[in-house]
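Backbones bend. Our protein:
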Amino acid sequence: MPKDADAKINPAHVAIIMDGNGRWAQKRGRPRLFGHHAGARRVREIVKACPDLGVKYLTIFAFSTENWKRTQTEVAGLMSLFRKYLEREAQELFESGVCVRFIGDRIRLDDKLVTLMDDLELRTAGNDLVHLTVALNYGGRDEVTRAAKRLAYEIEQGRLTHDDVDAETLSKFLDTHVLPDPDLVIRTSGEARISNFLLWQSAYAEYEFIDTLWPDFTADEFAKVLASFGGRERRFGAILA
């Protein structure tokens, strides 16, 4: 395929580390939760932009396994925000053709939030315009550890043997087993870390670290990042002629 044609191709699966809410709020003399609310509104805009930009799968990092170390006030505020967001956005997500999934360990989440998550997954399961995956109480190492435990259990039960175990087999036990690997991972706020996000799945993803704080990350800037991706040459470990 000619290189100019490649430049028109946008990634099918984009994953985003939504960073910078707290700093955005502090710059305005407001509490960190003010920034998280602004960030939640930005999620709606980015999800709406996906169909026109050719993005079929969008995965967002909402709360990590390490975020429990934040102040009790911030964590409680975030959990309340997640509940309100799901209650407020459920109908629109359904009517807009968005299929919603959640990845991460639900054990530590409160029952009301888990019920809202389960209900939204079930309600939107038949949608196919955009597949929105929300990483909530998620960590890449934790995910692989949980997958390894499930795999070990299958071996203990005699349903698999150690000879059956390869990368493809392990992938089937990951939270993301129904999703394609991300083509592009974006991190906002100027930090250049992957922060334990989709470690296995992003082995050959392209990365884009941008200075914009998440609440300022508009659909127009999203489109520019995707256009930049289209000009990259992806080799997947091979040498192209």
